[in-house]
Amino acid sequence: MFPHADELNYFIEVAKTKNISRAAERLGIRQPSLSAAIKRLERQLGTEVIIREKTGVQLSRAGLRLLKSAQQLLDDWDEVKYSALRENKEAVGHFTIGCHSSISLHMLPERLAGFIAQNPGIELSFQHALSREIVESVISWKIDIGIVVNPVSHPDLIIKHLCHDMVSFWHNPEKIQSRDVLIYDPALMQTDWLLKNMEKNNKYKQYITSSSHELITNMTLEGVGVGIIPGRVAQTIGRNQLQWVSKDQPGFKDEICLVYRREITHSLGAEKLIKEFKLTNYKNFD
């Protein structure tokens, strides 16, 4: 158990005066209360911090070591309290946003530049991973806010719908050189579902895999083959040159959501950032 700040302050005063009665008088508390606080501190440390003598007290070896660290501990605690109070009252702080790299291309608030300009006390970091990994990081406090696809309900999370997307088969009809080549990300659950639902009508003879949706989209754009791509990525990177291969082929409807812990909203900066995402007018792609 970490010592209470008052106990450390009491100990520092005893160390300065070398006298419990005088320290109690300077602190404005009763001597028995001060002695009890020092005893609690010693129980937490598992050793004595002062040696009582007839003429006063002396610090033990453990007490000397504690004295070197006690003031820094109190200064650090004051800084934590100040930062926490400031974040509650001002739009300040450093926040980590997690999302898949392809989602970041089209899901960041369109007014992000304006938001940053209006909130100079806010700093942002972005981490990119699969949606399920982002959700786990939000639950474990490693990421503050996540933009994820198809999140599963969790008691520690707040989940807010942003928009829909559709993962399907795309090609560039002006450049495609082979309709027998399929380009896709094998790690995506959506890809696995699409491949299983087209097994009977599978016409592809050659496969190219990549974990980069940007690369898949660019290869599709250059006519290398047919790509399995989220619709928003196809439109953003594909520069409106990509088209669905066929409306008869299966598509996987995704829900894109904002996820965060309730506790993060105690920070005014985080609350404003979440509000910015909610107010952004994302068009559904379905």
Automatic annotation (TrEMBL):
Q: Where is the HTH lysR-type domain?
A: 8-60
Q: Could you identify this protein by its name?
A: LysR family transcriptional regulator
Keywords of this entry: DNA-binding, Transcription, Transcription regulation
Asked if the Swiss-Prot or TrEMBL record annotates the protein with the keyword GTP-binding, the reply is no
- Which Gene3D superfamilies did the record assign? 3.40.190.290, Winged helix-like DNA-binding domain superfamily/Winged helix DNA-binding domain
Instruction: Indicate whether Transcription regulation appears among the record's keywords.
Output: yes
What is an example of a Pfam family matching this protein?
A: HTH_1
Q: Which family does it belong to?
A: Belongs to the LysR transcriptional regulatory family.
Listed CDD domains: PBP2_LTTR_substrate
